[in-house]
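In the laboratory, one determines a bound structure by crystallizing the protein with its ligand and collecting diffraction data. In a computational setting the workflow is compressed into a single prediction: the sequence and the ligand go in, and a structural description comes out. We illustrate the idea with iron/sulfur cluster.
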Amino acid sequence: MLKGRPARSGRPAKAALPAWASPSPRLSPADRERYAGLIAALQALVARPREKVVTALLQEASARVLLDLVGEAVRQGAPWKRFSTAVMEGAPASALGEADLSALIARLAGTAPALPRPIAALESRVQARRDAWACGAGCWMCCAINARVTALPAEVRAAWELLRDQPEETPPHPRACPALGADGLCRVYEARPAVCGRLGSTDVAACEAALERYDATGEVGRFMQSAASALDPWAFASLLAELADEPRRQVDLVTCLRRLRGGATMAAALTAGRAAHLAANPGERNRLDPAPRGR
Ligand code: SF4
Ligand code: SF4
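The predicted complex, in structure-token form:
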């Protein structure tokens, strides 16, 4: 027999924006409702009992930061469409206000329910893992193994801004990312996608072996570790996609840069990059994507 309170009849109560969000009067009722739903979902995620695995901690920490960003968007009266597009495309937090992300968190820490402490603890664990990596300047095999780099549109735009005026170079491997220089250095390092900094390895020999294995068999295998930051724009985009049913926008950076090098517009390059990403990750198709051709 089921215990607990019986369900009430009638329409379920709508989620309300918490007082700390101080909604701007410029927000439309529909946008208030969408923000309220997202805030409730994020608060529920943060309130879950913590599991002792990195991914759960990461999700909780990212949810706390996203909660702060949502509160700021509500206060500023940012229309839902503009907010959600900015987050899903990976635009920096400055798109929502004039502050960068760390300044925004510092400013909100005293007033918002999210606390920066677990985020700081997670970031120090992430840094400790990164410190153990053998990765260094001029080490490039991971930029060439399977010629795919998942990125958000804003990351493609930022990388292209740095690459567009640089001369063509012959990279050290024919499959390499177009941003890899002949010297094995990333030519868009300051704007490389978050995934490039999130993955690394403690063993250079394992990376060399992975490149040889892929050359011979086409199999990637596991040779890298992940050390994702809670402040990674991808983390926010993934949470928003799941909690607010927003369409995913990940693209393949390598395809985009090759198209842009060939003279394609940014829109055409992103469309091709999305198709390439979906071909490699068919489970991520969403309502924005064209239906696959044929039967
Ligand atoms: S992941 Fe491997 S190939 Fe890439 S920089 Fe690190 S050690 Fe080098
Ligand atoms: S953007 Fe830079 S770090 Fe990332 S795959 Fe390309 S060359 Fe490597």
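Strands lie at 150-151, 199-200, 225-226, 251-252. Keep in mind that any predicted model is a hypothesis to be tested, not a measurement.
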